[in-house]
Design goal:
- The chain has about 260 residues and is α+β, with helices and mostly antiparallel strands.
- The chain contains eight helices and ten strands.
- The strands form three sheets. It has a six-stranded antiparallel β-sheet with strand order 3-4-5-10-9-8. Strands 1-2 form a two-stranded antiparallel sheet. Strands 6-7 form a two-stranded antiparallel sheet.
- Strand 4 and strand 5 form a beta hairpin.
- The protein is globular, with a radius of gyration of 20 Å.
- The model has no long low-confidence stretch (mean pLDDT about 85).
Amino acid sequence: MHDDAARFLSQPITAQPGSPLRVAVYSRIAEAIRNNLLQPGSMLPSETELGTDMKVSRTVVREALMLLEEDGLIRARRGVGRFVSDTLPRIGIERIRPFEEVLGGPGKQVEIKRTQVVRQPASEFAAPGVGVEPGSDVWLWESVLIRDGEPVAHLQENVSAQPVRLGKAAAAPLEIDDDGGSTLLAGLNNRFGRVLGPGECQISLSQVGPSRAKLLDLRAPDPVLVLTQYVRHANRPFYLAKCLIAARAGHLSVMQSLQS
């Protein structure tokens, strides 16, 4: 394991409220694999070494590694050790991720076309999703996601404009610089680290409607998949997104497992 991977894995592990520590360890190792810090085919450190680096018990590490193996991120060779899988399963909408990652993938770069950034009073729909009273100020970021030159999704993201504490930063009004090239959730992750969660994604089917049809190069009655994502922080509603996905975007993956 090279130095960058060791430094990444040894950062303090903090479980989200109500979430087992093994899930936090799973997420840290999975992120190292996805970011290529642990490269495909490479051998993982032993349970003892990982536990020492991550400052958790060997039992917690073993449980996290079992989950990683179940999800296809690592494989075990009896009598040898555990290895990063040569081919990783595609992440779907079961994880809290920016929508450019959800709709992207190998060889599929997603471009963000910003259509609006505005501070406005929260609607009856947005207010409970971001944890404020209706009429309180919220940020709205609106974008069109373009892949291979075609618009594939229309995205509206909301967060409170009220003072909030994220990560180690002191509580302050939320100001996120719009670089024009990423979604709001990606901007939050880049600025504060991946401190958000847990979340919930509701899935429904609707018609695109006349105004959004123009943005997505569709007809008003054309069907779209609607993903409504609610994300919490410090066990309070924080971020709300509604993403309308055109059929040309193709399938979305949802990882499933049997529960005992």
